[in-house]
Write a structure and sequence with these properties.
mainly alpha; DNA Binding (I), subunit A; two-stranded antiparallel sheet; flat; binds zinc ion
């Protein structure tokens, strides 16, 4: 009971960005979880499909990277629902873009993807 309450409280503090050191701790913890997920059969199956979540092109499993849809720095978690496989190009692009620019990029992919 107590633990569950504490977790709820922690998450809220992170999302509202009250405390910077809390956020750093959050990122550290979630990165560790991501490392563990990388070894899971769930992840191996995901990359075995070889499809980039964003651009939808096909790649070798070794060319796919792990990406958090909601970045850890913005309160995202290393949960299966928030983790996707994407190509290096999309990953790099996402990191260098503002959220708005990234949305535009995804839109342009979707439009050009219709063949
Ligand atoms: Zn891609």
């Amino acid at each position: 009971m107590g633990d569950r309450y504490r977790k709820f409280y922690d998450d809220n503090a992170i999302v509202s960005g009250i405390n910077f050191s809390d956020n750093e701790l959050h990122i550290k913890r979630e990165k560790q979880k991501a490392r563990e997920l990388r070894h899971s059969s769930w992840w191996k199956k995901k990359i075995a499909k070889g499809i980039c979540y964003y651009c939808g092109r096909k790649f070798k499993p070794s060319e796919l990277t792990m990406d958090h849809v909601v970045p850890l720095s913005r309160g995202g978690h290393s949960e299966k629902i928030n983790i996707v496989a994407c190509c290096k190009e999309c990953n790099t692009k996402k990191r260098s873009c503002l959220p708005v620019e990234w949305d535009e990029y995804i839109e342009s992919i979707k439009k050009s993807g219709i063949t």
